[in-house]
Amino acid sequence: MNLWTDVFLGKAANFLTAFVNVFLMIFNTSHMEAKPVSLSLDDYRLVFSEEFDGNSLDRSVWRPHNKEGLRKGGYWSFDQASVKDGFLTIRTEYLDNGKFGSGWYTAGISTKGLYERKYGYYECRCKLPKGKGMWSAFWLTNSNASKVLNDGTKGQEIDVFESPFYYLNGERSWKITSNIHYNGYELQTKYKNVRITALDNDPYENFNTYGLLWTENEYVFYINGHEIARTSYGGVSREDEFMILSCEVDGAAATPTFGWSGNIKRNEADSFKADFIVDYVRVYEPKQ
Fold this sequence. Notes:
Blueprint: H1 3-27, E1 29-31, E2 44-50, E3 63-64, E4 69-71, E5 74-76, E6 81-84, E7 87-98, E8 101-106, E9 108-110, E10 116-117, E11 120-127, E12 134-141, E13 157-162, E14 175-182, E15 190-198, E16 208-214, E17 219-223, E18 226-231, E19 241-249, E20 251-252, E21 255-256, E22 273-286
Parallel strand pairs: 1-15, 5-8
Antiparallel strand pairs: 2-22, 3-9, 4-5, 6-7, 7-8, 7-22, 9-19, 10-19, 11-16, 11-22, 12-13, 12-19, 13-14, 14-15, 16-17, 17-18, 20-21
């Protein structure tokens, strides 16, 4: 396929995703309850702790996810991920002279081949990026999730959270979405929107924790230690998976287009930049 075909198909897919997401926001959005079920970690022990200390990413833990280069409406470059003062920052911005030419740059980093496991409680404390036409995410997956196996137990993409709602403005934008994918990413894909959750604070100005309890029987999703949803869709992955922290630009073939997160060209400042700031990533396992 040529560039124009890629962009056309990308636009069609983005419009379809945006349409479906509007439907989901109407029928599958919940608010943080006044007294939601809370998670106790008393029976768990910490087995992975990335506090982002030092002045650079620990390359024994993190690597570029998949590979650097073309990614949806922009490019992924490991250079867009930096560590300072105990925080990881993934910056999304337009670069005239970027590594792969002019365009929108951001990053996706993962623990693939460096730290992989199954089951346990996974948690990320972070502040979401303030930008239309782009989104951040904390997710788990393995190579089988992109294959047509018709078996979710071999591996799934587990989106603990994705943040495509900044374009809604104001308190309407205080939402995240949690999703499950497997069986590839073409027409045969299996997909479930677990829940869209409206937070009780501004997640673009405040740090919140987003967690996943993964057991043999189900996934349970948490915000700030409070349960927001649970599912056993696809049978639950029973294979090792790795963690990913990423930002994406809506579009295709490095061409930004309208999608479920809006359009990145609609941001107000000409020199628009958005930072996904991560305080820590931690993993716990049951003591027994």
